[in-house]
Amino acid sequence: APVGRETFSSRKLFILSAIGSAVGLGNIWRFPYIAYENGGGAFLIPYLAALLSAGIPLLFLDYAIGHKFRGSAPLAYRRMHRGAEVLGWWQVLVCFIIAIYYAVIIAWAAMYTWFSVTQAWGDDPGSFFTGEFLGVSETVNVGFNFVPGVFWPLLITWIAVIGIMVAGVRKGISRANGFFLPLLVVMFVLLVAQSLFLPGAIDGLNAFFTPDWAALGDPGVWAAAYGHIFFSLSVAFGIMVTYSSYLKRKTDLTGSGMVVAFSNSAFEILAGIGVFAALGFMAFTAGSAVGDVAVPGIGLAFIAFPTIVSEAPLGGLMGVLFFGSLVFAGITSLISILEVIVAAVQDKMGWPRVKASLAVSIPVAFISLLLFPTATGLYLLDTFDAFVNSFGILAGALVAVILVAWVLRKLPMLSDHLNKVSSVRMRTVWIGLVAVVAPVVLGYILINEFISKIGTTYEDYPAWFVGVFGWGMAAALVVVAVVLTLIPWSPKSKLHHD
Ligand code: PHE
Ligand code: NA
């Protein structure tokens, strides 16, 4: 490995950072409504199946590649095989796209932490969110009419995150996770406890946990479970490859992976309980069924939750705990996304930490600030999110498993590596899951995604808009990944590992 490559100073800090990356916006608002829409309590069966059959095996694969080849995603793949470098750049670019909009949601949550105190949304949180706060324009377009109420918090978010990135693995990433993650756990446990005492909470929990067994016969429900697990565990983004490259030689990889995976799931189920208890209260005050108040997606956090904050006893506190949790969970995930890009540039150019982190973070922040705090930013965010999740992450994961398992046939070697250092050992089962189960499931989900996205224009946005920022963006990533692969490596980078 190149001299001076930083390491996490302890396994504990690595695990904290890996959990910090995994636990993000996906756990807090995505999991609860995905579970609710896909069979409620019965969703736990496909969810656990997806976790055990694909999520954890692919997490181990990322760990094995990062730890064995000790490099950022492009360098680690390149050391595995010359032709695999492009896959690493693909993951870097996916992280770039996610970073530019993920930060925006953190900025919103930061503002809503404050709004929870002032009740800025008045008595119509729905029109406040898209109207006064985001100032969303009627027409779906790209424009540069800035919305200061989003621009300033976004700028502050970026300054904080850039500070962490420049400080590096030990002084920046480890410290930020060591501080934010325990804080997040305390705040979130308080939030869940508070919501369980609200009137109507039990109805919310019943809505969440009452199984719809028929849903298990629906392939879409299984696809939703697998799709969510990949996103939630941050596998196949290059994140876990990068973080595990900073581990010391002798580290229990699979044992750490199990801790990370089960902590992430525990957090998710806790979030489901908290969010649905709160929705039960909302339904109780509105005199309607829980199903009628469960707004999906962004609306759950930024429209339904403010309503609860306004009505609940000690609602302001509840809002601060909820939106504060979103901010902390989001920041620890955002730094992991940026680290993928920073590490890649550092390796490829042979630059020192500070130079690489500034050269990456400043342009990323600039693009984020240019595109999203505008009257049309929400449309762009939504389209990027939808396309990068399906075609960026899932397609990247599919190509990775086919390449590593079938073309390069590296699984036996990677399995040896895992077993040499780890407490939880497996070989045949792991290889079977990565080589056979993962590609079949991913292939199935992707074909369905493709058919559904090609069939109708996404969200009824204009065809040109989805064409450029959905399909066009995905195609551009492939081209840019190839171009980045063609740039020569710095003479300082050792392309062959020892
Ligand atoms: N795992 C994160 C979550 O559940 C998602 C994520 C992490 C997305 C890092 C991008 C980068 O929210
Ligand atoms: Na997660």
UniProtKB/TrEMBL annotation:
Pfam families: SNF (PF00209). Its main location: membrane. The chain crosses the membrane at residues 13-32, 44-65, 86-115, 150-167, 179-202, 222-247, 259-284, 320-345, 357-381, 387-408, 429-451, 463-487. It comes from the Bacteria. Signal peptide: none annotated. Belongs to the sodium:neurotransmitter symporter (SNF) (TC 2.A.22) family. This is Transporter. The lineage of its organism: Bacteria, Bacillati, Actinomycetota, Actinomycetes, Micrococcales.
